[in-house]
Amino acid sequence: MMGARVGRMFRNFNLENRAHREIGREKPVSAPRHPTPVTNVTAESAEEITEEIHKKNDPLLTLLKTVYVESKDPAPQSVPSESGTKAEAERRPLKFTLPGDPYGICDITDVPKGKISIVEALNALNHHKREPQTWTPEKVAQEYSLDLKDTRGLLTFFIPFEVKIIPPNEGGPQQIKDS
What we know:
Blueprint: H1 2-12, H2 15-24, H3 43-54, H4 58-66, H5 85-89, E1 91-93, E2 110-112, H6 118-130, H7 137-144, H8 148-157
Antiparallel strand pairs: 1-2
Helix pairs in contact: 7-8
């Protein structure tokens, strides 16, 4: 109950002066209206306009008939068979997996060439971070069957997490003294 009274008091404070100030402001000017070519549209002129719109234009129709469009569908991609060697050639076995089955990632046994699993990506990034001279982008691309441009981008822009442990101060807690 008391809160409503206080709120009403603040809401009604200086209400009359605020109202006069708002009324005294200049009103915004609207944008000018541009003249339209047809200001008086009668039923007859509207009928003429619709007739003009739906009228066939013979020169344009003859030009349209001379246009010939030839389209070819792209070749359908072959679906690899169950026992096909092509499916085996396009996939490679995983190099590294997580121990156990924490998130269902271990169900994956192979990946397509040109792609990499999360575990392999983290492993490759870690190898490159620890030994950049031996694990060059070319070696990582060859090891995981990746495109060299994509591998360079991966090693340049993705950095594995670093955990830094800051040792506690041996001096104990310090207090700020007034000056």
